[in-house]
Amino acid sequence: MVTPRPATTAAPAEPHRATATVRPPRATKPNGQWKVDGTAPLNHNEEFKQESDPLEVRARIEQTYAREGFDSIPGDDLHGRFRWWGLYTQRKPGIDGGRTATLEPHELEDRYFMLRVRIDGGALTTEQLRTIAGISRDFGRGSADLTDRQNIQLHWIQVEDVPEIWRRLESVGLSTTEACGDVPRVILGSPVAGVAKDELIDPTPIINEIQERWIGDPELSNLPRKFKSAITGHPSQDVVHEINDISFVAVQHPELGIGYDLWVGGGLSTAPRLAERLGVFVTPEDAPEVWYGVVRIFRDYGYRRLRNKARLKFLLADWGPAKFRQILEDEYLGRALPDGPAAPVPDQQGDHVGVHEQKDGRFYVGVAPTVGRVSGDILASVADVAEAHGSLRVRLTPHQKLVVLDVAAEKVESLVTELDALGLQANPSQFRRRTIACTGIEYCKLAIVETKATAATAITQLEERLGDVSALKPISLHVNGCPNSCARIQTADIGLKGQLVTDDDGSQVPGFQVHLGGGLASQDREEAGLGRTVRGLKVTADGIADYVERVVTRFEKDRDGDETFAQ
Ligand code: SF4
């Protein structure tokens, strides 16, 4: 006999099944876009930025930490807000790369700082260069590196000395304001702005206006992450424009004259993406406001929930250039921009090494320090040598090179000879010219391998082995100490990404994953392309020269006519 179920337990089957299987749509997690999701902080970085404007840490450094020392600095200032003033703690010496991922950050960190001096457009007077040299000698154990973003980095800085360093820098018009942090970083500018004979337009007024109006402005001191800018008026497109958040590249418009082609959304690191043209023409007068509009789009719509998705490139990838342009015009400029042509692809993106005529009949001389490593003494000597040859101006390049401007024809040879004696060659081998390296394990807490000395050794070995290397097709070699790509792994013919690798004896040793075939736009390859990882292709740090030699000689042997490495 079947016992009837009590009415109370006879729940209707349909509604029950519906409850079990058809859930209300799950709310997608907010991306932290201020204009869409509100400004409530979604991670600790966002919290500390909102708690106190990171720019305000300067007062605490001057009034407290410089007096009371390293141990008085709380964590959010030390590891967060200090960056807004160009200060990072450097790596404790002697900790090998195998322990980078296993130690706590404070165990990796030294009580000294890297200090990044911001040099918009890479433009320095000899007085400014001598000031940086003096700071290096007095407070930085003589250290100095030219970076691939036209900055100079000093090491071994103690917090007690920072106010005096700022005083010296600011007395000659330099600063460390927003040299790091979630802000508009240094503006890359053509190293030969205003002087090159073949320049289309001088972008210096635009760089100066942006610098004066908005660098250090609290309205832009809390971006989702860093914001990188570049602007060039030189036809060689010498500011690696494809890998910046925003770039202005000089172009001739058939009716409107010379202005700029606007690119947005480039960036490398572990999710590389090339910038895209918005298809607009920007007049020189409009350029500062367009820059201001794009940086505010990033501030208001940029993703803030996840740090590794917080660059502008992710927003551009989701929106596409057409929507990005529309938002820029409708919400930020209040007017449409004219359509514009693309700038012609240059023969080679300019590094300005060598001797070149200026528009005023004098010459500029570009020289190659090995992988950007110089010193306070060398910088002071460059200032002396330049002045002795009638020049008061130098420029830094996005390729870790240095350019002396305004040299009279009859003084060029002597200048070249004296710079050469400092290790700064105006006619370097292709390897010395086209190799760059990031900071690496010597100072960087994220590094897995050494880079600067490793690259310098490889350059010397390659020069010895390959003899007249200038006869070879130029090949770029970019050496990085970890996957973060500060030395642009993916835009080199041969990009090296630092990691531990297994050597022939089965031991774990410092080495590199190889990326091949990357490059920025030039006639060789027509358009920029990101290098690709070759599965399983790794080299040990000691084996770089062997590997490059094999690649170069095989390529030269098999090359079909003018075929380039990228092809
Ligand atoms: Fe440091 Fe890595 Fe950047 Fe090199 S690429 S400077 S190791 S974070």
Automatic annotation (TrEMBL):
<comment type="similarity">
    <text>Belongs to the nitrite and sulfite reductase 4Fe-4S domain family.</text>
</comment>
<protein>
    <recommendedName>
        <fullName>assimilatory sulfite reductase (ferredoxin)</fullName>
        <ecNumber>1.8.7.1</ecNumber>
    </recommendedName>
</protein>
<feature type="domain" description="Nitrite/Sulfite reductase ferredoxin-like">
    <location>
        <begin position="356"/>
        <end position="421"/>
    </location>
</feature>
<comment type="function">
    <text>Catalyzes the reduction of sulfite to sulfide, a step in the biosynthesis of sulfur-containing amino acids and cofactors.</text>
</comment>
<dbReference type="InterPro" id="IPR006067">
    <property type="entry name" value="NO2/SO3_Rdtase_4Fe4S_dom"/>
</dbReference>
<feature type="domain" description="Nitrite/sulphite reductase 4Fe-4S">
    <location>
        <begin position="433"/>
        <end position="567"/>
    </location>
</feature>
<dbReference type="InterPro" id="IPR006066">
    <property type="entry name" value="NO2/SO3_Rdtase_FeS/sirohaem_BS"/>
</dbReference>
<keyword id="KW-0883">Thioether bond</keyword>
<dbReference type="Pfam" id="PF01077">
    <property type="entry name" value="NIR_SIR"/>
</dbReference>
<dbReference type="InterPro" id="IPR045854">
    <property type="entry name" value="NO2/SO3_Rdtase_4Fe4S_sf"/>
</dbReference>
<dbReference type="GO" id="GO:0051539">
    <property type="term" value="F:4 iron, 4 sulfur cluster binding"/>
</dbReference>
<dbReference type="GO" id="GO:0020037">
    <property type="term" value="F:heme binding"/>
</dbReference>
<dbReference type="Pfam" id="PF03460">
    <property type="entry name" value="NIR_SIR_ferr"/>
</dbReference>
<keyword id="KW-0349">Heme</keyword>
<feature type="domain" description="Nitrite/Sulfite reductase ferredoxin-like">
    <location>
        <begin position="107"/>
        <end position="171"/>
    </location>
</feature>
<keyword id="KW-0408">Iron</keyword>
<feature type="compositionally biased region" description="Low complexity">
    <location>
        <begin position="1"/>
        <end position="21"/>
    </location>
</feature>
<keyword id="KW-0560">Oxidoreductase</keyword>
<keyword id="KW-0004">4Fe-4S</keyword>
<feature type="domain" description="Nitrite/sulphite reductase 4Fe-4S">
    <location>
        <begin position="181"/>
        <end position="334"/>
    </location>
</feature>
<dbReference type="InterPro" id="IPR051329">
    <property type="entry name" value="NIR_SIR_4Fe-4S"/>
</dbReference>
<keyword id="KW-0479">Metal-binding</keyword>
<dbReference type="GO" id="GO:0046872">
    <property type="term" value="F:metal ion binding"/>
</dbReference>
<keyword id="KW-0411">Iron-sulfur</keyword>
<feature type="region of interest" description="Disordered">
    <location>
        <begin position="1"/>
        <end position="41"/>
    </location>
</feature>
<dbReference type="InterPro" id="IPR036136">
    <property type="entry name" value="Nit/Sulf_reduc_fer-like_dom_sf"/>
</dbReference>
<dbReference type="GO" id="GO:0050311">
    <property type="term" value="F:sulfite reductase (ferredoxin) activity"/>
</dbReference>
<dbReference type="InterPro" id="IPR005117">
    <property type="entry name" value="NiRdtase/SiRdtase_haem-b_fer"/>
</dbReference>
